[in-house]
Amino acid sequence: MRKSTRCLAAATLALTLASASQSQAVTVTMACGTVGMELQMCKDGAARWAKKTGNTVNIFESPNLTNDRLGLYKQQLAAKSSDIDVYQLDIVWPGQLAQHFVNLKTKVPAAEVNAHFKGIIAANTVDNQLMALPWFTDAGLLYYRTDLLAKYGYKSAPKTWAELATMAKKIQDGEQKTNKAFTGFVFQGKNYEGLVCDAMEWIVSHGGGTVVDASGKVTINNAKAAKALDTAASWIRTISPAGVTTYGEEEARGIFQAGNAAFMRNWPYAWALGQGDDSKIKGKIGVAPLPSGGAGNAATLGGWNLGVSKYSKNQDAAISLVRYLTGPEEQKIRAIEGAYNPTIVSLYKDKDVLAKNPFFGSLYSVFTSAVARPSGPTKTKYNQVSQAMANAVTDVLTGKKKGQAAVAKLSADITRIKGRAW
């Protein structure tokens, strides 16, 4: 984006904030997540907006797990409750919740909207209406212990899942001689949305398709998808503990950050925490693309966005808060302090951001080409599809089914959910 356009957008936002501060002060309630540094950074950003405008922000602490959060949101919105003005929305939710949110397309200048990645804006657009503004984006990454790779003779991160398994086993066996709690690889194995994200990466990287393709066709029942799930199951009790099937993001991070794992699949937020003063592995962490299963690397697109409830009694102030928090100033702060990936293109060339998060530049293509979950083609039925997928993958990881039986049943389940059409 040209500098003049950025300046115009910033000036417009400044005028909006000034206008908000001149009107009667109101209280806005915002729902924020609590994973890692998320809650504190949400509070800090909201406080900065409140100071600029003279308004007050109450923070509603949402559940950690995305499934629990969505269930709570649906209850609030179905009741047309005005208790929450601003919602933090997962990238896969706009199609499910669109009828409950203000169309920001007519409320936010085009220059502000166009500063964000086009693909993320598209994901937040339903029937040509902009349901939310992007706050931060995500893509799955492989974290590894640089010191342990060197100790055991490895010069770089694994390029394939097979290499990861070999390296993780060698390091695990060596470290367990002095640390029985040590494990090779941790990831999000609990039956919830996080497992769907991990499974998408396994399946796509093996060439198994995207579960449901862009046309709405169910594609999961194939040998490559089955192999991907069987491969993941082979990690359990060999390079991953049996308990990994109960891990969410924070459980995996806790083990890795305590120095008890060689590799971890997680989101970018784990970087800043791993480099914190209280981390046992500060300065010993590397980040790389997730390995390939033979069909290239795949990282699931994640990320969160901010939308304004149609039932809010303070919509103007709520929109002002959303515009401020998703603007370049706040996104830069969040990138530097919390390793949250910006959705504003220009920040990936910002020297301050890259100094704190060097992998933002080297892994830029991972973030810009991340694989979407099938929320687009499945529309309002995505939550049912996601749960069916999580159940199927859990069956394989826990040994109840082999990959081929699981993908065949999943295909039948998704076809039933689809009915005559999405």
From TrEMBL:
<dbReference type="Pfam" id="PF01547">
    <property type="entry name" value="SBP_bac_1"/>
</dbReference>
<keyword id="KW-0732">Signal</keyword>
<keyword id="KW-0813">Transport</keyword>
<comment type="similarity">
    <text>Belongs to the bacterial solute-binding protein 1 family.</text>
</comment>
<dbReference type="InterPro" id="IPR050490">
    <property type="entry name" value="Bact_solute-bd_prot1"/>
</dbReference>
<feature type="signal peptide">
    <location>
        <begin position="1"/>
        <end position="25"/>
    </location>
</feature>
<protein>
    <submittedName>
        <fullName>ABC transporter substrate-binding protein</fullName>
    </submittedName>
</protein>
<dbReference type="InterPro" id="IPR006059">
    <property type="entry name" value="SBP"/>
</dbReference>
